[in-house]
Amino acid sequence: MTGEQTPQIVYSAESQAKSPGKLFRNMTQDMFTSRELAWSLFIRDIKAQYRQSFLGVVWAFVPPLVTGLIFIVLQQSKVVNLGETDIPYPVYVLTGTILWQVFTDSLNTPLRSVKNAQSMLTRINFPREALILSGIYVVIFNLLIKLVVLLAIFLIFRIPLTPGILVAAVPTALLILFGMGLGLLLVPIGTLYTDITAALPTLTQIWFFLTPVVYATPQTQPLATLALINPVSPLLGAARSLATNSPVLHVGAVYVSGVVAVVLFFLGLIVYRVGLPIVIERMSS
Amino acid sequence: MTSETLVRVEDVSKRYCRDLKRSLWYGMQDLGRELAGRDHGGANLRKDEFWAIKDASFALQRGETLGLIGHNGAGKTTMLRMLNGLIRPDAGRIEVNGRIQALIALGAGFNPVLTGRENIFINAAVLGMPKAETARRFDAIVDFSGIEEFIDMPVQNYSSGMTVRLGFAVAANLEPDILLVDEVLAVGDLAFRTKCQVRIQEMRDTGVAIIFVSHNLHTVSHICTRALTLDRGHIIFEGDPESAIDAYRSSVASRNESVAQEMRAGTGEIRVGRLELLDAAGAPAVNVKVGDALTFRLHYEAAEPVTDPVFNLAIHVVNGQQVTGIRTDADDYRIGRVEGRGFIDVIVPNFNLLPNAYTIDAVIFHRDGFTFYDRVNQIASIEVGGGLQINGTAYLPHRWVEPVPTTLEIPALTPAELETS
After folding, report:
1. Is the ipTM here above 0.90?
2. What pTM value is reported for the model?
3. Do residues B125 and B133 lie in contact, with contact meaning Cβ atoms separated by under 8 Å?
4. Which of A69, A80, A148, B247 could cross-link to B237 by cystine, CB 3.0-4.6 Å?
5. Do B102 and A124 touch (CB under 8 A)?
6. Do B93 and A1 touch (CB under 8 A)?
7. Which string of DSSP letters, residue by residue, matches B264-333?
8. Contacts of B108 in chain A (CB under 8 A)
């Protein structure tokens, strides 16, 4: 700890958004210096979560599996018509629900991390970016567990394992960035007012049905347009198609959504960094 | 030691809101302003806001120990939180040169399900210690905490004292340039408190600058090299600890007068008028020192004749417990019959209370010594000054006799005797 140059910190009423260059530099620096802390927090959360659970990792894949199974039953008993898919419907729907879970996980993680860390945030000055980073670790960890189940499904339905599966990681990562970005934008308001937390489950449910997760990409209006302008659907669709070795639809929309996801993530980071000190002041310690 | 400025606080102000709903709404407004690139805060108060800190300026040099004293809500904690970077000033500027560490939230970030061992690593990481460093210091941390046998037990089974011990042990092994201390010494058992104090002294001796917030004026006067007195968000005094403590006492005393929460009760045949404090010359007593002669003159007014009322003065430490009292019945002093207006003097040849602010309640009882004729709480206050910094409230008149050499063998106390003594 010796030999370091003494750091100088200045706290003032000046808006951080005034000098975006400095804001961005500080942000990336904090992101980098907090990686070890983020890892510790991630390990802490995972350990604590599984130490207090009997079935452990089972809970990571039960919800998407159950949702998937419901739609498989509905489809096969012809209660609903969910359209024609290129791949066996069970594979389509289970891949879809797992990817959808990755998205909602990313969306909910920032707000949840901040709320759980409330006592720490109001008492200790640590790089707050650590919470974002550890949140990303948690999302990836949950995804990896689900991948084991997905692999089993692929083997059962004899889906060929192609290099496309590795390429599918790119749209999946973008899906995580999009969800995280949106989640980060919600952090300041969501910590001040409980309304956000209350509204999120309903909103995500509506979103779920507007996105071609359990049904084939719609060809009729207005759902077709809605599926295009909703960034989740091209990204989710691309990841699913690449993983299952089927053609990717609407390639243009995928690229646009990718750019939207990255931009939204950085916007989210800025709002988080600028907004958090303000909301911490209004939180109870 | 070089006079290197580690902390510089310039015209810092901070406002708080009394109303939660409004506070949240102001939060939204601030958020919007901030994102639009406009500066945080402002010079004016919005509805329901007040200044928690107003125009505070001071500097802290390397090697200094600065005390922050003031009544509850004077702004001490707000100042610490700003120095720690948890909340931002609404005006002004704080410059910190060096690593700052707060001994405030001991054990924050502890996960109750995980063991003490696991929590040490997490807590250290949160406080900014690299993992390798924590591993190297691990034994020292456990040793300092003194809870080695419980280190692999989940923290949720720890007593609150054990949690604090562990938290302090982690914090005490960091090497900051500036240390913020807020009343942590008030927790844990005596042995551990002593350990903490020793550790803080050690850090001070190695040149760590300390900002120390405490209600224990005795500690402040002993360990601080300088002190600030805060009153309702303003720094009303900056200088040597003794004078700062005096400033604090008079601020508390004047505050008490202005609040003047009179509580009157009783049957009312005879009423308390006012209470005068006079010095030996019969003039109103000011600048009372320990051991001064003091006369209490209690004025009364009896609307009808009363026989043998009991006069009582109860003396309290300001906002605290009763220290002593003076009663006519306890002194077997019979008043006889009184009627109309008058006063009664009680002379105290040596007012042997240690420097502090005291308040006095005046009571007149029926002859049974139990039923009130009248009672006025905090009718007057006395501020005892002087440099005598002894922990406690009472001064015992005494003298020392020079050391006497002796060849006599004094048997050492056996452990059993130590136990019972």
Report:
1. no
2. 0.77
3. no
4. B247
5. yes
6. no
7. EES--SEEEEEEEEE-TTSSBP-SEETT--EEEEEEEEEEEEEES-EEEEEEEETTS-EEEEEETTTTT-
8. 119-120, 123-124
